[in-house]
Amino acid sequence: MPGKLTRLQWMLVLVGVLGTASALAKDPVVPSDELVFCTVCHGVQLMGNPIIRAPRLSGLSSWYVEKQLHAFQDGWRGVHEADLVGMEMQPMAAALTDEQIKLAAQFVAATDSPMPERTLAGDPSAGQALYATCSACHGNQAQGNEALGSPALAGLNDWYLREQLEKFMSGARGSHPADTTGQQMRAAMQVLGDETAIDDVVAYIATLGH
Amino acid sequence: MNKNLTRRQLLSMVGAAGGATAVYNTSLALGLMSDAGAPARLDLQHVPKGGARIIVLGAGIAGLTVAYELERVGYDVQIIEASKRVGGRNLTVRHGDVIDEMGHQQVCRFDDHPEMYFNAGPARIPGHHRRVMHYCKSLNVPLQVKANFSRPAYTHDTENFAGKPVRVQQYVADARGFLSELLYKAIDQNRFDEPLSADDRERLMHFASTFGDLQPDGSYKGSLRGGYDEGGFLSPAVQRAPLEFRALLNSSWWERGMLSAENPDWAAPLMEVVGGMDNIVKAFVRELKTRVILNAQVQDIRLKSDGVDVVYNHNGKRRKLSADYCFNSIPSHFMPAIPNNLPPDYQAGLAAMVPGNFFKIGLQMKKRFWEDEGIYGGATSTNQKINTIWYPSHGIHGEKGVLLGAYAFFGQCKFFERMNPAERLQFAADCGDKIHKNYSSYIEAGVSVPWGRMNHMMGCGTTWSEEVRNEYFALLQQPAGGRHYMIGDQISYHSSWQEGAFASAEYALLDFNRRVRADATRQGVR
Fold it and tell me: Would you place residue A22 in the very low, low, confident or very high pLDDT band (cuts 50, 70, 90)?
């Protein structure tokens, strides 16, 4: 964020915050009081907050968010001893009712915010070749595929993607027997041999979805 | 000294050349005065009704101070607060209060009784925090003495002294005794590099002997300063046998806490607010004409050439406020997730600040058992993760009391944050049992307050690295575009202290006043 105005900021300067014309595809969502707490960490319109390691969630598919919130709640995400950030999220999800999880997922899907800035120095062209395997499930624009249980990756912070890939690699994520798609992802990590490969593929994903 | 200037002579020369301010600044430089003198007289410019409009973001101590001072001189002030309550980290927990920890909301089950309260945020006020004192005095907030460092309390070390608590007085007396004995013997054997005169040597040995309460032969055999084992009233006092020197050396309290009261912020006597620290907040709210808008989370901050626009959500609606000036106490770590057009270096500074963290547990005890052990207020220190048991200075000789059962700092907090509230209380109870007999059996109710997990907080103040401070502190003290001030204890050298919040508010108000007066002068000329 530092260094220059973000896209949202420029747009807002141009059209005015409460103007009828919105700079983003969607108008800002005003969350109900019970969902404001998502935004405390994940930021305005869930734009993400790198300082508290809370990723951008804006526009994530509701089916995926719902599934992950249940995963946190049911104890197959955010409980591994090496997943410290996940452990911070876990009690937040555990406190939600099924109905609130539905509403939270709808809220996430309805939000929009500027695409995150790149913070990592991977090589996108090297990443593009690696991504060919990933695209089978996650789609060639990283748009996700609900039928396969594969989430969209475009629009996630690069640092968050790297953290998750590292967790799949180490087993901090995708080890729980109930996490069937996570186990598939963990197996798929063989494609990404090392840290450089992870950075490269993440750098490529960051170019998608704009 | 005859040939050299004395400090007094130097000061009168500086005074003649530069006036009183130069003397004051020079005195500061020479360490003769503290900069925590009387709070600056604000002398704010009065404005006619309906004059400039002020938005204050955050209803903690800094925000309330700014609102109070500006309202008094005629400004139209609006305070926006994200959480459901006023006060920020000035939080006193009582019967029925909800502790708004994210993911673990708790309800306080203390008795509904005026003495059953717990200061989960600031809890002690040293006398040199002149701004806190100024507002307590001028807003009629009564204070009382609060014991902090306590000689009858304990120091406890699971690895030394057979894991048994040792009275602070004994530990301190023995530590001094051992050190003094070494000093005494070193002098006696003339092992100093610098030759001492016979008189010097005798005087130094006497000093060592007095400092450590040594025997005439310079040995340390324990001291009545360390407390009585028995007697002292109807029979001769029997002093405690000294601790074992090696155990004392191996123990960690001499580096963890023995000298804590040497820190001016923790030096006796400290003060506290009668009835709970939040009476300061209540006093401000009583004085304010404006009503704080609660549950109002800021969505956008837009700096303009002639003011600031703030968008916030409230009651399910998106609303906009325009003001001439904005005073912003939102924790720095939230700012990167709030769209704004503050200058890039300003944003970079906010993003570089690292949030601090504190964690406290408060326990209602059905019996004030510590008073039966001769402890009236003050703190016991342990090498267990709870760090501290702090006995209340209020409600003495009452039936029950609320004590602090754990106090963790910065990185230590995560350990507790990862537990649920019930697990935290159980952990604190188990630690307490190692210090006080039947400790856990006295616990009737408990609360835990992890500031790093509290709704709309997610941290406590700022831990400034020297590098980040050098680069950004002065910048962030200045108003962005002359219109947007960052305030709060985060913008001070006393983060996580109320005095830091007051000081930052004072700094911003003084700067604001200079600008307003300069504008008025310019307009007068025109």
Answer: very low
Q: Do B130 and B174 have their domain in common? A: no
CB neighbour list of residue B255: distance below 8 Å, 6 or more residues apart: none
Mark which residues 408-467 of B lie under 8 Å from A by CB.
414, 417-418, 420, 453, 455-456, 458
C-alpha–C-alpha distance, residues B88 and B55, integer Å = 17
Residues 70 to 109 of A: which have CB under 8 A from any B CB?
84, 87-88, 90-95
Structural domain boundaries in chain A: 7-110, 124-205
Residues B362 and B449 in one domain: yes
Dump pLDDT digits (tens) for B61-98: 999 999 999 999 999 999 999 999 999 999 999 999 99
pLDDT digits (tens, 9 = 90+) for B344-390: 999 999 999 999 999 999 999 999 999 999 999 999 999 999 999 99
Global pTM?
0.89
B402 and B365 in one domain?
A: yes
Q: What are phi and psi of A173, to 5 degrees?
A: -130, 145
Residues in chain A with CB shorter than 8 Å from the CB of B460 are none
**Whether B265 contacts chain A with CB within 8 A:** no
The mean of the pLDDT values for chain B is: 91
| CATH superfamily of the domain spanning A124-205 | Cytochrome c-like domain (1.10.760.10)
Decide if A39 touches B, using CB distance below 8 A. Answer: yes
B202 and B103 in a common domain: no
Binary contact (A91, B104; C-beta < 8 A)? yes
Residues 110-169 of A with CB under 8 A from B: none
ipTM score for this prediction: 0.87
Same domain, residue pair B226 and B243: yes
Cis link prior to A91 (omega < 30° from 0)? Answer: no
Question: Is B122 in the A-facing interface, judged by CB distances under 8 Å?
Answer: no
Query: What's the domain range around B17?
Result: 1-32
The answer, for A28 touching chain B at a CB cutoff of 8 Å, is: yes
> Are residues B368 and B444 both part of a single domain?
yes
> Which residues of chain B are within 8 Å of residue A42 when distances are taken between CB atoms?
337
Nearest to A17 among B104, B309, B418 (CB): B309
Residue B236, C-beta contacts closer than 8 angstroms, at least 6 positions apart: none
Is the CB of residue A117 less than 8 Å from the CB of residue A50?
Answer: no
For the stretch B132-151, pLDDT in tens is: 999 999 999 999 999 999 99
Do B347 and B466 share a domain, yes or no?
yes
Is A1 close to B351, i.e. CB distance below 8 A?
Answer: yes
- Domain A7-110: which topology? Cytochrome Bc1 Complex; Chain D, domain 2 (1.10.760)
Number of independent structural domains in chain B: 4
Q: Please check whether residue B524 touches A, CB under 8 A.
A: no
Is residue B147 in a domain? Answer: yes
The answer to whether residues B117 and B261 touch, using CB atoms and an 8 Å cutoff, is no
Q: Which of the four pLDDT bands, split at 50, 70 and 90, describes residue A11?
A: very low
Using CB atoms within 10 Å of the CB of residue B242, give its burial: 0 to 12 exposed, 13 to 18 middle, 19+ buried.
Answer: middle
Query: Which residues of chain A from 41 to 70 reach within 8 Å of chain B, CB to CB?
Result: 41-45, 47-52, 54
The residue assigned the tokens 């048991």 is B389
pLDDT over 60 at B32, yes or no: no
- For residue A37, the chain B residues in CB contact (below 8 A) are 102, 455
Residue B19 confidence (pLDDT): 45
B273 plus B422 within the same structural domain:
yes
Distance from C-alpha of B178 to C-alpha of B146, rounded to nearest angstrom? 31
- Read off the tokens for A89: 């999220």
